User: What shape does this take?
Amino acid sequence: MEPETIEAEFERVVSGAVALTSAYLPDWATALLVYAVAALVALVLFRGVFNLLNRIVEGRDLFWRSLVGRGARPLRLVFLIVALGFANGLAPVSSAAAAAIGHLLLVALILCLAWIAQTALYIWATLHMRRFKLDAEDNLLARKHVTQTRILIRVAKIMIGVVAMAAALMTFPAVRQYGVSLLAAGGAAGIVVGLALQPVLKNLIAGIQLAVTQPIRIDDALIVEGEWGNVEEITSTYVVIKLWDWRRLVVPLSYFIEQPFQNWTRESAELIGTVMIYLDHSADIAAIRAKGAEIVAANKLWDGKVYAVQVTDFRERELELRVLVSARSAPKVFDLRCEMREALIGWIQAEMPGALPRTRAEILPGSELLPSARQQSA
Assistant: This one.
């Protein structure tokens, strides 16, 4: 038997049952009974379909199993909406009431479909980000994927909400034009809304650019507005930077597209740190260089790649010694710089005190001290 024939026969049987019930019950009671029976049938059908889906995805990957599990509630609502919509055409209600109920069910179906889409999006993002660990020592790849996924998920959620809202508005004849304007971003209403929401749209577009180009990522070490910190959170409109002293700096997304800033971990978390030491001209640079190599080799923070000691300036009263050391991350570089500075100064004070900066004065034979200097020497 053809599917059309089965459907027609089913409708004929249901219509006969409704007509028979109407002969004994008032119309409102018959309508409630029809809706109740439709809801009960929908729940029974859902249970059977849900069990079948569980058996189908039993041997598949975690995404499909999670989608079936988390999508049970919106899918149950879809079954109820479809069944009530079918019952709405058979229940003995007025045409105005039937139209209102049908319209309400259509809007509910649109919202349920948006719910299912967002559920699938959330499951995919969760499973994708589970593959990467931000607490790993070399977390460049993890930061890249986590940042990209979080930004795109937020943008996708906004787009799903906009499309669902536009589709719902288009079902109302009185405001259909606003739904079309919202969906197509055209017309006078769309222009007014676009101008009113310009800052939001600006940051939304900036978020898409950040996800694609990735000038910043989660846990990147940045210098923004003269402040050093790590990217803690990237939302659809702003970025939260956790500063070194645990303060939070909140910056709009558009800032990172329009303004210059420093990213210390753009390609790699490894950094070179600088230690500046000022010494007397008589300092033994070779001995200091050898001692520095000994100190850095014994330090666990050093990554073994960069170590250099150079005289970078020579002034009338002192010389400037620059020590370069490298580590795997910005916090380790900072700690390594402090430890190198402390160790070198302590060694110079103990083993080479004459190398510390001194102020020299030469008094020629036969010269007289000034009165102030004579009083001080006395």
About this structure: Residues 82 and 105 are 8 Å apart (CA to CA). The chain has three domains: 3-131, 163-267, 271-355.
